[in-house]
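Course assignment 3, question 2. Fill in each field.
Student: A.L.
Task: Predict the tertiary structure for the chain below.
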Amino acid sequence: PNKNSYSVDVEFTVGRDGRTTDAKVIETDAPKQLQKEALDEVNRYRAEPSAEPTRGRRRIEMTID
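Answer field:
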């Protein structure tokens, strides 16, 4: 079967300024190129600034035509 839907679970830190850093793939069935795209997406993400840096986790779903 030709599978073309993938998910990438990414863990990251949201800093006091709301910037995302230290993104890393923790679980995935996606090829390396899609993992890189998922990390790039998370690294572009901006959250609300907070008093202390916090760890976050996000699942990114991807489908290839």
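Instructor remarks: Residues 32-44 form the longest helix (13 residues). The CA atoms of residues 3 and 51 lie 42 Å apart.
Grade: pending
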